[in-house]
Records
---
Amino acid sequence: MNLTLRHAALAATALTLAACYPDDLTNAEELDTVTTLFDKTRDFGAIGTYVLIDSVMFIDGDGEGGDDESSISHAFDAQILATVRRNLNEAGYVESPNPAAGTQDITVLATTTTATTIGVAYDWWYYWGYYPYWPGYAPGWGYGYPPVSVAYAYTTGTVMLTMIDAQNANVASEQIPVLWIGAVNGVATGTGEVARVTNGIDQAFAQSPYLRAR
Amino acid sequence: MQRLWRKLLVTTGVALGAAWPVERAAAQEYLGGLSYSFAMPTGDTREFTDNESWLGLNFEGQWFVRPNASAGILFGWNEFHERTDEAIELNNGTISGGQYRHLNVFPMLVTGRYYLNNSATAIGTTVAPYVGASTGMYYVRQLFDLGTTEFTEDGWLFGLSPELGVLIPLRSGSIGMLSARYNYPFNGSDFLGNQAKSFQYWTINLGVSYGR
């Protein structure tokens, strides 16, 4: 190959290698999401007092045979509730001094749930690399080795904040109006990173500016 | 590892194309080409992934039907991607988190070229500008990752592609190829969000042709 072609090949190689995918995931936190939904017909500026349920309830997302509450740690409940309380106060809401009276404008509760996903992934690139020619047969026949397969399992956790209007519950239909939902979801790493949860709660309130409409 | 294989495949293909031996033909009957393709999104493509594409490849062949005109086929590939944390606003809410947006486009086109002031005998010995047009099918695969959830849709779109280019004889005897092409797949199929999309984009293609 003469010099010109060599230069062309090298330039093409450099350009091609410059084409790169975005950075691979480096930690599970990059998969965290925060979703908020709200009732557009509500005037959040008219809300004054709130009651924050004093415990974080667990809801089994896997159904029967899934996680039970005994396997779920409540070590971070206090931090979760403290973060929710701080954000509600900063939004201008006042915590009711007498929750038992039931006169608060809204009730806020925090729940957690987990879900485990199991699957198998295979890489077809490895499959073609191991496709042999079986002697004695016509060209094109070969023994099809199974692709390289990898089993995986991961658990995701969700902390959900629900703001309800218990004062206007419909007893006949057994429905309670939901004013706002904030859901913080991420892959459970088992390392107890409560900061991911509290940061997610802060983000849920930050992306809900209508809650501060007063 | 899959990305490494892709890079090696593309690199090997372009290097082989650059090294392909060529004769200086007295009159070209056929031109084969392999080119690297840089792409810039527009329209629906830019709306989905606002990033230029540095990963693309074209294989094409041109057969001279007249002294100044050729017809042929083109198989190409361009890939667009973007990682963003931009929040998604819904009608009654917001979703925030890491998003990975990926678009693979495979044009499969019938092409035609008209060589300005040049004939098949001159190509390979002088600079040969040309204008071209292509039509055919685009296979588009759209992928959207949000957190641990992945959404994918794909579809076939009929499209058109005008082109401007120039063939440049190289000292080695090969023919260098530089062109700009606008790819316009027509609106169609149900892509993510149950919406019909077009996925237009520009490409600048740099490669090597060989003829006989």
---
Amino acid sequence: MLRVENLRKVYQEGTKRAFEAVADLSFTVKERELVCIVGPSGAGKTTLLKMIAGLLPPSAGAVYLDDEKVTGPPEKMALVFQDYSRSLYPWMTVEQNVAFPLKHRKLGKVETTELVRDTLQSVGLAGAWSKYPWQLSGGMQQRVAIARALAYQPEILLMDEPFASVDAQTRADLEDLVLQLRARYGVTVVFVTHDIDESVYLSDRVVVLSPSPTRVQEIVDVPLPRPRDQVETKELPEFAQLRAYVWRSIKRPETSEVPA
Amino acid sequence: MTRSSRHASSHDTSPPGDGPAAGAAAPPRPETDDKGADAWAPGSPVTGLPDGSGSGGRRSGWWLPLLGIAAAILIFEVLPRIGLVDRRFLPPASEMFGALFRMVLDGSLWEPVLQTLQGWALGLGTALLIALPLGILIGSLFLLFMSTRTIVEFLRPVPSVALIPLAVLVFGAGLESKWFLAAFAATWPILLQTLYGVRDVDPVALETARSFGIRTPERLWRVVLPSASPYILTGVRISSAVALILSVTAELVLGAPGLGQQINIARQSGAVADMYALIIVTGLIGWGLNILLSIAERRLLHWHASQRERNR
Amino acid sequence: MRENSRPIRVLGVGLEIAVPIALLALWALTSAGSTSFYFPPLLDIFRAFGDTWLFERVSTDVLPSLARLFTGYAIAVVAAVVIGVALGSSRTLGRMVDPVVQFLRAVPPPVLIPAGILVLGVGSGMKVALIAFVCFWPVLLNAIDGVASVDPALRETARSFQIPARERLFRVVLPSAAPQIFAGARVSLSLAVIMMVVSEMVASTNGIGYFVLQSQRTYAIAAMWSGIFLLAILGYVLNALFLLVERRVLRWHRGARAGAG
């Protein structure tokens, strides 16, 4: 469904301060897959995500969504940023925030309300309808952002380190929430994170990036059984192996041994 | 950089939603938001560029502001000449600047400038002498704050120009009136800003000092005042603008010696270009004073978090 | 701090109410037998206030003053927001316009009155035009800056959700810039009052400002004081109204700042 081909991004190209953030990235994401993108700090993860989302034009290469080239924010895609306090609108209530992208979809008032209600319920925020985002905790705000993305009914969901600003326990809850929602709505997910445990826990495949100028270091299959569980899955020896593998892959730019 | 720090640009020590005062509706807050102060007394230029880049934007297109100024002057040159505005009442810019240079060269400009500045300085100085200590006092003593709250909030929006007739009655039409009016008007911004600045001092900072055994006078000097200084300096900037306005207005309405009076005389005697030249001079003085104060503010607050951001 | 103890807080609120009343009473008492020319007894002033402003001179002086004020102010704010949004969206235009706006903003507003008299005469039109001119710049400055400083994350979010440009303007850009626009509008309000009063003192045959100066010239001192009181009340009421509106419209802003702080 999503094809990234030889993406390259140079900031301030042609000037003395040109900075090649992304050198050459290629990978694909299949329908209904959950792919995590990990890499060391400064590896251009956010740059990559913005290019996929059509918010940043690449210097070379292209992104194809369902074989259509991405030149601007594609309609079938929804984004969840890391900094929820900067992406939720403080002058709108939770309900208005979630309903905002639905306005131009011409769904009719009743349908929209129901959709919003459903989505809020599935993220566990049924009661926060008329609250303002800043009245909620960080974890709840991030749920609102997720709800907003879901209500939009995208085919593919991009998440840029969405749980980085949240405490560990809330993060575990939110990770499980993403898994539930994916199972329920069948949406494809591209999830950027720097948390290796999280990447292995959530994904079907992990794309490991090298430091800048960024390339695909390698792509790791994660054949752990589903449904995943915070305790049981993480007790499996395979989990530890995969986790270690990914870790080494990030820390040392040469390829490591493929696990048995 | 979070959004909240962007709004309170210069002042990370922005007050919390509702004042620390208990119970009853908090009084209207003064312009502790730097953007409010910038609207009163423009300091640094607008640097809020859409892509957020500071130095990058400033280096490219440095000629843009100059182009803007040139365009404005051009408009004022062309409009009267093509007859869109009557040139007897709005002469072309070249005539205005010609009159300006003439007045500079023949020395007739300096006396009124100094007279106006004298009113400004006396007003601002008096205001500082009165409002700073008073503000510190009121801000530090809760009961005093509560006692004076209503009075201050009521007197604060009084337009000082309303007192012009009173001033001329009591002080005549000379320097004393100017001084009184400018001082009265300039007292309020400094008083309010100082007051709230002192009240908003981080209690943790104070308690730290107290736990180290630092006594009250030194705490005042080394913790309270520095902490409140962004507020206070904003107040000084606003007060400066206000003192200038009142000084010039007194000259205009009462005929006290100074630029305002000269402007009136120029109009009445038909020296139209001279009148505009004097108006431009007054604007330059106002603008120049703001720039000076902004620079002073930046120097004095170089340690403050917001300044560090700005200078990146 | 010690002020958080309940008895002190109660005492504080009590003082807040009692002290102003006490001071007013003190003023009334000490001035009661006053023979001072400049400071007549407070009660005389109250009497003059009642005679003049309730409601004899309302239509001849108060209404014209207020009409000029509101008209000029409204024109300025609307124009400044519209133009400010346009300029703030273009970095180039914003930077071009900046020094000119800063300069015009720094001119002490009353000195423009003689120019105004020359170009526009001494009628209400001149006053409205001057008030509008003077009130325009602070709001413009803040509108430009407010629009230019809209958090890019908010814009990007809207773009990625396919929100059309027009809706982005009204539901993202304007609300985001609103706090700053209000700050500018508040300053403009004070300037509007100043300009209203001074322009009436210098070039008018009616209005509150005119009345106060005229009373002084004819030595109707109590009447003059009553006019000053009225202007004080006017200033207070306008400010209070403004804050009421601001608090309502920007309800979310105070909460958001407290939350993020």
